[in-house]
Amino acid sequence: MVLGLQGFYTLNRFGSTALLGPMVALSLIKELGPVLAALMVTGRAGSAITAEIGIMRTSEQIDAMELMGLNPFRYLIVPKLIAGIIALPLLTAIFDVVGIFGGYFVGGRLLGVGQGTYFGEMANYVGIEDVLEGIYKSLSFGAIISWVCSYKGYHAGFGAEGVSKATTQAVVLSSVLVLFWDYIMTSLLF
Amino acid sequence: MIRLENIHKSFNGFEVLKGISFQMEKGEILALIGGSGNGKSVILKHIVGLLKPDQGHVFIDGKDIGHCKGNDLEEIRSRIGFLFQNGALFTSFTVYDNVAFPLREKTKLSEKEINERVFKELDQVGLAGAENKYPAELSGGMIKRTAFARALVTKPEVMLFDEPTTGLDPIIAHTILDLIKSLHEHLGFTAIIVSHELSRVFQIAHRVAMLHEGKIWTIGTPEEILSSSDPVIRQFISGATGGAFKLY
C-alpha cells in the first residue's frame, strides 16, 4: 500500500500514473517480495530453527541421535532445508499477491487509477521472466536461511547463552546473506 | 573388551585428562568416581567416539574408535547404550516414541514387535502406563528411567551410565542402581557407572576407578578402595572438607 502511495505521487510528477500497476508489480515480484518475505521468515522461522537445534545440541539430544547410529544431518537439517525451499516461494507468492492488491486499493480505489489501467498495464509490462526471477530468488533464499540457521543451531555453544548467541548470529548472518545474494542474483539475472 | 591407552584431552588450553589408561573385561561393572569436573563424562564420551582424544587410543574389541568412521563407527555404537546425565530424551516425542525410536530407525522389526519390546522395557523400568507422556510431563526419575529403557531396548553389549542417580531422591536413586544390578545379572552387559552414590555403587561394581587430577588415581575392587590409606581416597569417600583432595 505504501508502495502504491509513493509510486502514485512519484509517477504523477511525470504524468505516468497509468504505469502504477507495472511499477508495483515489478517492484514486488522481482525484488521486495522475495527479499522482505525472506527477512520475515528469517526472523520468524529461522530463529526458531536455530533455537530448536541449539537446544537439542545443548541437551545432548543430537549426541543421543549420533549414538543410535543415526545421522543428525539427515534427520534434523535436510527436512528443514526442503521445507525452506518449498515454503519461501509460496510465502513470497502470497506476499506479492497481497502487495499488488494493496497497491491497487490505494492507487485504484483511493487515488483514482482505473482498474483496467492498473491491471492491464501490469499484464503488458510484467513477463514470465520477471516472475521466474522472483521464484529463483526465493528458492535460493529459502535454502540460505534454512542452511545458515540449522548450521548455527548445530554448532551452538554451551547453555542458554550459547543458544541465544547462535540465534542472534543466525538471524544477522541470514539477513546479510539474503541481501548480498539478492544483489548477486539481480546482477546475474538482468 | 574396552581398553583406554594414555588418553589426553584439553578444552580451551585446560588439560582435563592427562593420560588415562585402563581396561575392562566383558561383563564387568566398573564404577568411575571422582570430583565434579574431573572429566568422568569426558571419558565416557571418548569411549563412544563423541569426543576424540588429543593423544592416545580407545579400543573396543580391538578396534580403535578414534579412527573408525561411517559403518565401522555405527557398528561399534550400535553395541553401546549410553544413559546421559540429563536423559537427552527427544522432547517432541512421547515416552513410547522415545523408546521405540532406535528400533524404528535401526531395525527391521514390525510395529507389533516394536510395541512388544517397548512395553517390555517400560515395564522393566517401572514406567508402564507412562508411555503417552511427553518428557516435559515427567519427573527427574521418570526421565532417567525412560532414557534407561531407550538405551536398553536395542540390547547393547556395553552400557555407559553418566550419573544415573544425580538429582534424584535416595529412594529413586537406589531403585535405579538396583535396576542396573538386576538387569546386569539378567543381560550380562559390560558397564561403566559414573556416580556419586558411593555406598550403593560400591555394592554393584566389580571394580572402582577413581579419577583425580586428570589421571586414574587408583583402580581396584571396592574392598581395596574402601580399605585404602591414601589420604585423597579417604577424604573423597568420607566427604570431609579440607585435605589432600584438590577441588576443581
Features:
heterodimer; A: 190 residues; mainly alpha; 7 helices; B: 248 residues; alpha/beta; 6-stranded mixed β-sheet; 4-stranded antiparallel β-sheet; 9 helices; globular
What best-fitting shape of chain B do the alpha-carbon axes yield?
A: globular
Q: Helix proportion of residues of chain B, in percent?
A: 25-40%
Assembly status: heterodimer
Largest sheet of chain A: none
Mean pLDDT figure of chain A = 91
The ordered string of helix (H) and strand (E) elements of chain A is: HHHHHHH
Low-pLDDT stretches of chain A? none
- SSE topology string of chain B: EEEHEEHEHHHEHEHEEHH
Q: What's the Cα radius of gyration of chain B?
A: 18 Å
Main structural class of chain A: mainly alpha
Number of strand elements of chain B? 10
DSSP strand tally of chain A: 0
Amount of helix of chain A = over 70%
* Secondary-structure-derived class of chain B: alpha/beta
Mind summarizing the main beta sheet of chain B? 6 strands, mixed
In one word, what is the shape of chain A? elongated
**Gap between N and C termini of chain A, in Å?**
26 Å
Quick recap of the structure?
The complex is a heterodimer of chains A (190) and B (248). Chain A has helices at 2-13, 20-58, 61-67, 72-110, 115-125, 128-154, 159-189. Chain A has 190 residues and is mostly helical.
Which SSEs are present, and which pair or pack?
The complex is a heterodimer of chains A (190) and B (248).
Chain A: H1 2-13, H2 20-58, H3 61-67, H4 72-110, H5 115-125, H6 128-154, H7 159-189
Helix pairs in contact in A: 1-2, 1-4, 2-4, 2-5, 2-6, 2-7, 4-6, 6-7
Chain B: E1 2-11, E2 14-24, E3 29-34, H1 40-47, E4 55-60, E5 63-64, H2 70-78, E6 80-83, H3 95-106, H4 111-124, H5 140-152, E7 158-162, H6 170-187, E8 190-194, H7 198-204, E9 207-212, E10 215-220, H8 222-226, H9 231-238
Parallel strand pairs in B: 3-8, 3-9, 6-7, 7-8
Antiparallel strand pairs in B: 1-2, 1-4, 4-5, 9-10
Helix pairs in contact in B: 3-4, 3-5, 4-5
